[in-house]
Queue: 2 jobs
Job 1
Amino acid sequence: MSQQRHGNTPGNAGAVPAFPDLPEATIARLPEYLRALHNLAEAGSDTISSEGLAAAAGVNSAKLRKDLSHLGSYGTRGVGYDVTLLIDQIEYILGLDQRRAVALVGVGNLGHALAGYDGFASRGFRIVALFDADLEQVGKAINGLTVRHVGELRRAVVEDGITIGVISTPPSAAQGVADDLVAAGVTSILNFAPCVLSVPAGVDVRKVDLAIELQILSFHEHRKASLTALPGGLVGEGGNQEAVGS
Amino acid sequence: MSQQRHGNTPGNAGAVPAFPDLPEATIARLPEYLRALHNLAEAGSDTISSEGLAAAAGVNSAKLRKDLSHLGSYGTRGVGYDVTLLIDQIEYILGLDQRRAVALVGVGNLGHALAGYDGFASRGFRIVALFDADLEQVGKAINGLTVRHVGELRRAVVEDGITIGVISTPPSAAQGVADDLVAAGVTSILNFAPCVLSVPAGVDVRKVDLAIELQILSFHEHRKASLTALPGGLVGEGGNQEAVGS
DNA sequence: CGCGATTTGTGCACGCCTTCACAAGCGCCT
DNA sequence: AGGCGCTTGTGAAGGCGTGCACAAATCGCG
C-alpha cells in the first residue's frame, strides 16, 4: 500500500495531513476501538497487542490490524500498539478533538433521556442546545440547558457553531425538523424517529430505530425456535454478536 | 460473525413453511419495509410497486425486489405487491405475530425512556418487566409497570416467558446482567451499555451505542471540512443516508 | 383474442469486506 | 553480536452484497 504518513504531498498547502480514505466498515469500528483503548489506558496499560485490543473490542485480530494499518501503522512489531498514541490518532481521525457542538430537537420521552446522557459529553461532544415545538416544554431546564422553541433553531445553529443535529421527535415532525436543520447549515443528522429522511447531497444521516433492533432479534428468536423443532438440534452454534453500524 | 449452518432439511414435516435462509443484510431491512408498508396501508393503498415501496423505505428498488424474492414470490408482475399480504408475510418471518415478551434491566436515564417508548408496544413487543439493582428505584411505577429488583429476574423470565432482554445499565453492570439473563434462559439481548458482552453460543446480542453513532458522523464532518479546504471543492457529492444495522 | 404497457424476479458482473497465512521487523536474552 | 520468540503489516483468496439489465409474467384494452 502507498501509505502516506505525515510526509505530505508537496502541493498540499493546508496544515492538515492528507486525509486518509478509510473504508466505511473501518470507520464504523474505530469508535469501538477507541472505547476499548480508553478502558485499557485507565487500567494502566501502556501498550496492547492486536490480539488483546481485538478481544477488548469484540472483533477479529486480523480485522483490527487491517483497520489500523489503514490509518498508517502506529504499532511496533514484537510489542504492540502504544495505547495513548493510538487514542490520539483515532480521536484525531474522528475529529473528536474538536468537541463538536450538537443540537437536540425533540425533548419528549426519548429526547429527554438523550439530553441527560453522560455518554455524549464524555466521548467528545457538547450538547449545546435543546429544542421542542411544544410550548409546554419550552423554557424547562434539562441538565442545565433551557429548552428553546424550534423556531430559534436557525439562529442558534449559526451562533453556537452547531454541525450535528439529533432528531428525537415523533416521525411526523422529523422531516420538517431535518429541513430546518439543513437550512440552518447542519450537515450531519442522527435520526431517532422511525421514518426515512430526505436530505440534499452532502448531508449525512444516520438512523437509529430501537424497534427495528428488537425486530431483528425477534427474527433470530423465531429462527432458533423453529430450528430446535428439527431433528438435528443445534450443535455448537456460534453465539452471534453483532454491532450496529453500517 | 455468525457461523450458523442451519441445514434446512427438505423433508420438513411441520405445517410451517420451511424457514427461509435469508441473508443478514436482508433481515436488517425487512423491518424498514414493514414500517413503510404499515404507513401505506394506513394511507389506503392496496398494492404497491417495488419502486414505490423502495422509495418509502429509502432503498434501491432492485435491492428491495431481491430481498422480497428471498422470502418467496408475493408480488404480481405488472401490478406490484399486495400490501396486507406482504405485511402478514414479513411479520410472520420476523416472528412479530407472537408479540414477544421483553424484560428491561436498568431504569436509569435511558432505561426510563425506553420503558415508556411507545414504539416497542406498537411494533410487536410487550415490555413485561422492569428491573434495577438500585433499591431506590425498586418499587417505582413506570408506565404501569413496577420496577423489581434484579434478583427476581430469573423467576420473572421463566414465569412470563421472556425471550428478549434489554440492557440499559451502566457498562460496569452490563456483563453481570447479561450473565443473569442468559442463566434465566434469555437467548436474545439488546445492549445499550457501551461495552462488549461475552455470551455463550446460541445467544444473540445486538449493540446500540449512541455515542458511536455520533462519532461516525463526526468523522464525516471532519472529512467534509478537510475537503472543502481543497481546490476541487465538493462536486455533486451524494448525500449519505445510512441506516444502522449489521 | 391478441397486443402493448407495466412490473416482477433473477442471472451476472463488479466491488467491498473478511479471513487466512506468512514474511518482515523488533526487542530481549544469552 | 547473534539468535529466538513475538507481533505487526499485507498479499491473496473467498464470500457476501449490490445494482444493472433483461426475460418472464400479468393486466387492460381495443
Job 2
Amino acid sequence: MRRRPSQRDIARAAGISQPTVSIVLNGRADEYGIALETQDKVREAMRRLGYVPDVAGRSLRGGRNGLIGVHTFERVFPVGPDDYYHEFLVGIEEKAVEMGQDLVLFASTQRPDGTRSIYGAGTNRLRLADGAIILGLERNDDELVRLAREGFPFVFIGRRDIPGAHTPYVAADYAGAIAEVVEALSSAGHTRVGYLGLDGTLRRGPQEERREAFYQCAGRRGLEPDRPALMASEALTGAWLREVAASETTALVIEAFELADALAATALREGVRVPDDLSVVCLDLPPVSSPGWSHIAVPRRDMGARAVALLLGLLDGEVPADRHEIVPCDPLTGDTIAPPR
Amino acid sequence: MRRRPSQRDIARAAGISQPTVSIVLNGRADEYGIALETQDKVREAMRRLGYVPDVAGRSLRGGRNGLIGVHTFERVFPVGPDDYYHEFLVGIEEKAVEMGQDLVLFASTQRPDGTRSIYGAGTNRLRLADGAIILGLERNDDELVRLAREGFPFVFIGRRDIPGAHTPYVAADYAGAIAEVVEALSSAGHTRVGYLGLDGTLRRGPQEERREAFYQCAGRRGLEPDRPALMASEALTGAWLREVAASETTALVIEAFELADALAATALREGVRVPDDLSVVCLDLPPVSSPGWSHIAVPRRDMGARAVALLLGLLDGEVPADRHEIVPCDPLTGDTIAPPR
DNA sequence: GTGAGGCCCTAATACGTATAAGGACCTAAG
DNA sequence: CTTAGGTCCTTATACGTATTAGGGCCTCAC
C-alpha cells in the first residue's frame, strides 16, 4: 500500500461511502445533514492516513485546487541578478501566502530553444492549476487568444490589449508616472530634454510604451525633447555624453536601468557632474541599483499581488472577464533633478 | 458545443472508438497494428477539431502528476538580493525543465509568524505533488521524520542526518573544499591563521559545519588556527582588524559573505592591503559579490539540480530511500592568498 | 396503520485518458 | 472443412473527485 490515500481509502477506514467523504471534505456536511459523529470519523481518518485531495481528480471534475499557475514565456530564473521576473514573483508569492494558495511554476513547457509555450508541448499543462498568471516580454498573442477562447481563467501582467479577445491584465500606469517626471523637469526650469533609449528587442513592448508616453506628455507640457538616442548600454561612449553636455540639452531621461548604470560610469569617467552639469531621471530603476538617481519605478511587487487578487476574483466570478487594472507607479524619488546650469 | 474536444469527440468524428484515438496519439499505432488509413483519419480529425490532450485525465490515469513540490521552512523569496534560496531554485528549475516536470511552491503553508510548516495547516499539502524538495535553515527534524514515516518521497537540500529516519539529502562537500583551502594556505607558507565567523543564529547549521571542518582539517595539516572570532558583520571594527594585522596571524579565513563585504570595506578604510598585508579566503561567496577574493563556493545550482534528479530516481524506484549525495564545491579561485609578509 | 416529513447516508454517474482483454474477420496451412 | 495465426479494431475498466437522484429508517400526526 504505497500509493497516496484517496477518498475511497478514507471511506473504507471510516466505514462509510466515498461521497460522504467528499461532502465532509468540502464543508457541505450541514447542507447534506451529515451526522457530527460521522464527520468526526471522516476527519480523524483523513488525519490518520494523511489524506490530501488529488489535483488531477479535482481539476478533471472541474473543481478548485488552490493552485495558481505562473507561466512565463521565458525562463523564470535567469542567471543574472537584475532579474526581470523576480520582483513580480515576490509580489505574487506574498499575495498567495495571504490567500492561502500555492504556486505552480511551469517549467515543463520550455522548448529546446529556451522559449516557453503554452501549447508547445502538445498539451496545455496550465489546466492543472485553477487559473494562471502569465507574464513575458515576447508577444505571444495567438496562444493567449486560444487560452481565452478555451475559457481558461488567466491574468496577464503587462499591458496586452488583444483585438477580439477578453484578456484581463494588470499594467503599470506609465503615463501618470511619466507625467510626474515631465512636470518635475519642467518646473525645475528645463526646456530641452534628451531621451536615452535602449536599442534592440530585449524588452521592446514596455520600452516603446514608455517612449511614446514620454513624447506625448512632453509635448503637452511644452517641453522640447530631442529625438530619442537609442543605443545598447555598451555603446554609450564618452564622446556622446560630452556632446550632450555641451549642447542645449540640460536634462536626460533614461529608459532602462542598464543605460543608467552605463551612464553613471561614463559620467564619472568624463567628469560630467550629475545633477550640476546634467539632470538625470531614470524610468524604472530596480530597487537594488545605482546611485540615488531620480527615478520612477514600475511597481512590480504590487502588480504581482494585484494579479493574484484579480485572478481569484475571476475564479470566484466576482469580476468580469475583461477587467483591466492599472497600478500607479512608485512616485518620483531621488535627487538628480536640479535647475539647468 | 463550447467545451474543448476530447478523444471521444475525435473518435466520433473519425467514426472509430476512443481507445484507438489514444493509441494513435501515443504513437503505439504500429504496436497495435492500426491501419494507416485509420491513423490518417484520426490525425486529420485531431487537426480539424484542435485537439489538445487533457493533463488532468492523463495524470489521473498515470498516477503521477508531473509536479515536484518545493518546500522551504522560510519564505522562498526574501526581499534582499543576496538571497539564500535563489541559486538553489535556479538549479531546481533548470533540472525540472530538462526532466519535463513542473514546480509547486508551497506558499499556503506559511504561518502568521512567517515560518512555514508542513503539517501546520492540519493536512500535509505536499502530498499534492509527486514528491518534494525541502530546504531551510531551521532545524525541523520532527516534521521531516514524520514525512519520512508517512512514506512521502522527498529530498532535503543540506546535510541532515536524522537518527532513526531515512532522509535522502544532497549536501556540499565542505570537508573536501576546506581541505583545499587549508592546503593552499599551508603551501603558501602560512602557519598562524585567523578564523572570522558569523555570530548569531542566522544560518547556524551550515556555519558550524564549516567551522568544524576547518578546525579539524587545519589541525591535521599542521596549521595553527587562532580561536574563532565570532561577530556580526556590523560589529567588525577597524581596531580589530589592526590588531589582527599586527599579530602573528598572516591569513584570515572568513565564514560568510556578509563578513567578507564588511572586511573589504574596513580594510580599505584602514589601509590594510589584501593580500600583501593579510591573505584572505572566504568560504562560500555568492556569484555576485565582492572583489575577486579567494574563495570556495557551495555549488547551490548544482545541488538543486541533483536534488531533482535524486527525487525522480526515488519516484521511479531506481534509488534506495536512504541515498545521500555529496556534491563537490566549486574549486578555490581568486588571488588573495599570498605568502605571509 | 398509514402517510408525511425529517434525517442521514448510498448508488450512480461523469469528467478524459490509457491499457488489458477480447472479438470479428480474413488468409493460409493442414 | 477445420484450425492456426494474423490484422485491426472494440469493449471494459480504472484512476479520484463532486454532484444528482434516490432510498432506508425513524418519528410524529392523523
